[in-house]
Design brief:
homodimer; 504 residues; alpha/beta; Arc Repressor Mutant, subunit A; Aspartate Aminotransferase, domain 1; 4-stranded antiparallel sheet; DNA-binding transcription factor activity (chains A, B); pyridoxal phosphate binding (chains A, B); Aminotransferase_I/II_large (chains A, B); PLP-dependent aminotransferase family protein (chains A, B)
């Protein structure tokens, strides 16, 4: 015994010795009421200082693994679990439940719809256009550190104890003002802080989903694949409305609404729509609000990337267009602009709705990390956000234009869309199957996101793809797009329809 | 115009000027294509430096609210939303949805079951025994700051970008070892990091709840009121098994199981059970595991307060007792011991189960705050945890003994239970209605948690209460318990049954 002790570099030795002894006791290698080696003996056996052993023995006693008899030494206080090691026939080791069989439909579809468990993993050196997460090299760590230290200095311990389900009050006040500056009329509305956009969206769907029948939802087509996933997960049937250069096709929206008015909600992303990057025109925003109001359909507005505008005038969100109307739920987040690692988002909507969401939030996660909320708050009031967004906008705009230029040069047959944000959306002639294209490109060390998963119906958008450029270097943007271009030609030139001059 | 600008101390003036101008544009007070005052004019009007105005104008242009004509000045780029202000008849302001009516049963019960929306609020100067949150004065802020800085220095920006749904790998590895040191056999098991115990519990219930019928759950009676809330929220019928001094009544448990074996799961808190503070004996732990295994009932083990042991030998958790068996799901958290503000907990269980929970977690919140996880991780490997727990244990043990002594002196008629943790549980003669007692005490500036809400059936435990002492000063513990004692006498002495000498 005591031969197999090995020191690891990462933790204090006292703790390592303590844990080592705990194992021996738990395994039953040291029996109950057995005397432990003297501290001097063990220090020799484990090749550690005697003080280390003394401290470790104290810890073992504190944790109830041993007891000391003054003048005699330390003794094992508990009976080990040989089970945990051998697991004999009559031991609980035999207990085996089939968990997969116990998972309900919701849990099962969560796995089936989990894109992360399907997507192609990027190997080393692969040029990956799949991410639309911000480029962390733009993060101003110093400002974040300062924000943390400033806030800790002001509030100290309070930040580490329980907060409120609704959110960190100073942040709520700040974000309410922030939304007012986008033109939102706050009367009758309240805000709930969530762990990012996703939690906000999941809470809203959980509250609005019909429990006795499948729900029905309207959305732009294509749209954010995570939104499609969560709508399906909550058993909504989805009706997609095609996109135009200036946003959702309002005539078709109206036609659909005239046909059936059994929609429980609409999910819309008016600014820098994901994946097309299109910004809905002010005229369409009013038209959409008028329609939704007429048919009394609650609107969930995704504030996605609103901050990453590269050109054109500011456009107020739908919730601002609705004025005092309470039909729009706005879900915001800085994740795509600022720090996704700080899981902070917000839901702005009618007071009665927020009251319900608050209780649901409390039952699910109690509250969002106070550290995250307070760092974000201090970062904002320190004026770092404006400074950062200015910098980020410049850099992303440059990359956006580079990506656009490369696509125009090397992929002339593809239709581009995207007025801002961290990605471009490409539509190829129908002959180009982007899943097949992806397979070919993967072999050449380039990956992207095939567009079909952004479409509501199976088999739609098989000729589209999304290029996320935020985390790709300039030279890789060029190389990657060239490689995609080569593959388009080698794989589809001889395709059934080929590509006529007209198309190229 | 420009008369109503007021500087606030809390943010950079540039931002305040920018926001002020945005409001005017959005309100339509400044019309599209209208020329803004020159920077010199505005600096005089708003009484701020000209450079401030110049910077603010740049910001307005960046955000698309204005455009500049070189040599001429800045002009308004967008049309405001007078709607948002007045809301005329034909505006969307008329749009009013009845959100309360749109909330489904789940959202409604979330509010109905939300204790925070019922509990008595403590006024200033009130002695409150309702909290069992840790005493933040024990928090070692310096160590937390260091943990943050250390981790930022090591990983930097990465901490601020997206993490993994499963959790922060170094923390998972650490906690797996931590659980092994409690005697857990890790084979076939995996871990998911959650935003505290509550998210873990909610995820597990969401995955196991039957969707076509009401579920049925077993638990100790009384038990953690939040657990009761979440079980009800997920439409479980709850069967409570009475407690004994050494834990759940195993005979009754067996009797119930023999009668009906249609239980979907059992929820158990073997260590420092909430609210009774009882620790289940090793013998009972084996017996419970044998029973659950025989009847094939999944066990959710709440690791609540396991670290706050004040006396007696270490007792391994149920998941350790189960050896290689996969029937126990362990949900852990340091919230009650360490920092509740850091929303970090963990679910340890069968690989197939964790795989499903991971996808559910991804669909709901993407992942737990990386900052929270990495601060906790660094704090742990810096060896601060052992140091802190040692300190906290001493302090809470002292308070625990003081509270116990005061209860024995002033409330001799009450039965005490609790071997550790941050609270004591009192059971009075049946004549004492603790809701009525609370009303009387509230008038005297003392509040506590009536015990009935910890019981499964309406009307049970009306003569019980929970005293949380972690955040009450020594003198207030004494004063508070004296006041409770006085009220017990003045309110119930002359009660229907009164209290015979024997009872006092």
């Amino acid at each position: 015994m005591f031969q197999d002790f090995k020191q690891a570099g990462d933790r204090p030795v006292v703790i390592q010795v303590k844990e080592y002894m705990k194992r021996l006791i738990i395994k039953g290698a040291l029996q109950a009421d057995q005397k432990l080696p003297s501290t001097r003996e063990l220090s020799v056996l484990l090749k550690v200082s005697r003080n280390t052993v003394i401290a470790a023995y104290e810890g073992l006693e504190d944790d109830g693994f041993t007891y000391a008899i003054p003048g005699k030494g330390s003794y094992v206080a508990m009976v080990g679990h040989p089970d945990a090691e051998q697991g004999g026939a009559d031991s609980s080791a035999a207990w085996h439940l089939d968990w997969k069989a116990k998972m309900n439909e919701y849990a099962q579809s969560a796995v089936e719809l989990d894109l992360m468990k399907q997507g192609i993993r990027a190997g080393k050196g692969t040029i990956s256009f799949t991410s639309i997460a911000p480029d962390e090299r733009l993060f101003d760590l110093g400002d974040v550190r300062r924000a943390f230290m400033d806030r800790m200095a002001i509030e100290g311990q309070v930040l580490l104890n329980y907060g409120y389900a609704k959110g960190y009050k100073p942040l709520i006040d700040y974000l309410m003002r922030y939304m007012e500056n986008k033109g939102v009329d706050p009367s009758g509305k309240e805000m709930l802080i969530t762990s990012g956009f996703t939690e906000g969206f999941d809470l809203v769907l959980s509250a609005l989903r019909p429990l006795t029948r499948r729900g029905s939802a309207l959305c732009e087509n294509p749209t954010h694949h995570t939104a499609i996933k969560n709508l399906k997960l909550h058993r909504f049937e989805i009706t997609g409305i095609p996109m135009e250069r200036d946003g959702i096709n309002v005539e078709q929206l109206e036609a659909v609404l005239q046909k059936s008015n059994r929609f429980d909600l609409a999910y819309l992303t008016p600014s820098y729509h994901n994946p097309t990057g299109i910004v809905m025109s002010p005229a369409k925003r009013s038209a959409v609000i008028q329609l939704m109001r007429h048919y009394q359909i609650p609107v969930i507005e995704d504030g996605f990337n609103e901050e990453l505008r590269y050109s054109g005038a500011h456009v107020s969100p739908l919730i601002a267009t609705a004025g005092r109307g309470n039909g729009v739920i706005y879900i915001g987040s800085f994740s795509k602009v600022l720090f996704p690692g700080l899981r902070v988002g917000w839901v702005l909507g009618d007071r009665a709705l927020i009251d319900h969401l608050e209780s649901m939030k409390r039952a699910r996660t109690i509250h969002t990390s106070t550290i995250d909320q307070s760092i974000l708050y201090q970062y904002l009031i320190n004026g770092n956000f404006d400074k950062y967004v200015k910098k980020a906008r410049l850099e992303y705009k440059r990359k956006y234009e580079l990506t656009k230029a490369c696509c125009e040069a090397h992929l002339p047959e593809a239709q581009l869309s995207g007025d801002g944000g961290l990605h471009l959306f490409l539509t190829f002639p129908s002959v180009v199957d982007t899943q097949r294209l992806l397979e070919a490109c993967t072999d050449q060390g380039v990956i992207f996101t095939p567009g079909d998963k952004f479409f509501v119906q199976e088999g739609e958008g098989t000729n589209t793809l999304r290029l996320g450029f935020s985390r790709v270097t300039d030279e890789n943007i060029e190389r990657g797009i060239q490689i995609i271009s080569e593959q388009v030609r080698s794989v589809f030139q001889a395709g059934p329809l080929g590509m006529g001059e007209d198309e190229i």
